[in-house]
Amino acid sequence: MNKMKRQFLATVTTIILIGQIHFSFGQTTINMQKEGGVYIVPCTVNGLNLRFIFDTGASDVSISLTEALFMLKNGYLNSEDILGKENFTDATGSISVGTKIILRKIEFSGLILTNVEASIVHELSAPLLLGQTAIAKLGKFQFDPVNGTLIILNGANNSYVNTYVNLNNYEQSLDGALKAIDNENYQSAERILIKYTQSNPSDAMGWYYLGNNYFFLEKNDSARIAYTQGTVVNPKSAACFVGLGKTYLNENKIADAQKYFDEAKSLVNVNKDITIAIYLADAYIYSENQNAEEAIRLLKQAENISIKDFRIYSLMGDAYKILNKGGEAVTAYERSGELNPTNARPYARVGMIWNLARNYSQSKTSFEKSLSIDANFAPAYRDFAELYFNTGQYDKAKETFA
To answer: What helix, strand, coil percent values describe the chain, rounded to 5?
Structure first.
């Protein structure tokens, strides 16, 4: 188990209470968060964590097209929830075109609302509004804008909402997803991670890895949504802020990327925490706008803190390979393999480098070592088949690739 997972398991609590709620004499008081002059209510919608603006002037609960597409793609909404097109009004009286939907369950601060009518605003960046279709279900209430409290006068359904984090599920599903990603089986990883984030929506690292997987699938917008969700459930998730920066780096929006990278660095002690260097190096290596030199600089800094984390050397090997520095890449991969001897990837990467260098004997040895560690490691078979093809062993190439 790597250091990042140990840190998570050491700090996670088994029961997470979402929001703050107090009950007295049939009343329910909800404490909201004030941000930028509006009041934010963290909600769980059909199992997905979202942050809504409390808006008594909005006729409906509304979500943006970005969130709606993500929910449809990942099973939080289905075709039966879509009712048709409509016009709706916001607090300013503006009329907009949207799509009418039903949200099966909205949970916030211990309250559960079911079958809530809502609107999808046909704009990618529209704010999420908790409007009258939800507020009316609360019964009589008083809103105190000074203290940021919402008082439900007639006593709403006051059961606490809690999320149970099954640690065994954490181990199995995230490890399974990461192994699928290593195998470049991104479709399987996507299925695992969607299921995991549905079961454990408060785990920001699940959203981070889902974002990474979408990144490998070249779905930059989906990756951004996943990373954003990670920052919603954990505003101190350095990994997810780096992920957001990576999506902008991918679009060559360097200033925007740097803003998120700086935010991530502000959340950790960069002189002691190697994970921030790992996340940033990953961004510089895997984005469309690669900066392998910067990745190596960051990884060298991490190496000065610890020489025991295999991820440092795995990424360092990738960075050196980008720079066509095969010798340095092989050294880094081999060090990664020594630190994590159950991981087949480093030796498969070494085999690929030796193949490119036409050192076919060393390449064959490395592929065989990779497959001795994991007989199902698909990238090793693929690159081993290329080795056979390059050496004119076409039958073996066909057999290995199959």
So the answer is: 50, 20, 30
The dihedral built from the CA positions of residue 242, 223, 101 and 192, taken in this order, carries a sign that is negative
Helix (H) or strand (E) holding 41: strand 38-45
Question: Distances from the Cα of 355 to the Cαs of 19, 180, 239, 361, in angstroms?
Answer: 56, 24, 34, 9
As a whole number of angstroms, the distance between CA 145 and CA 138 comes to 18
Helix (H) or strand (E) holding 371: helix 360-373
Angle at 119 between CA 118 and CA 124, to 5 degrees: 135
Q: Which helix (H) or strand (E) holds 1?
A: none
Among 69-73, 84-88, 131-135, which range has the highest average pLDDT?
69-73
Find residue 43's DSSP bridge partners: 50
Cβ atoms < 10 Å from Cβ of 252 = 11
Q: What is the model's pTM?
A: 0.59
**CA-CA distance, 5 to 318, in Å (whole number)?**
22
Query: What does the DSSP 8-state code read for residue 136?
Result: G
Antiparallel, parallel or unpaired: β 61-64 and 111-121: parallel
**Long-range Cβ pairs for the range 391-396 (8 Å, 24+):** 391/360
Q: From edge to edge, which strands make up the β-sheet containing 149-152?
A: 21-24, 27-31, 149-152, 141-144
The 10s digit of each residue's pLDDT in 312-343 is: 999 999 999 999 999 999 999 999 999 999 99
Exposure string (b/e) for 136-165, b if CB count within 10 Å is 16 or more?
Answer: ebbeebeeeeeeebbbbeeebebeebebeb
For 359, residues 6+ apart whose C-beta sits below 8 A from its C-beta are none
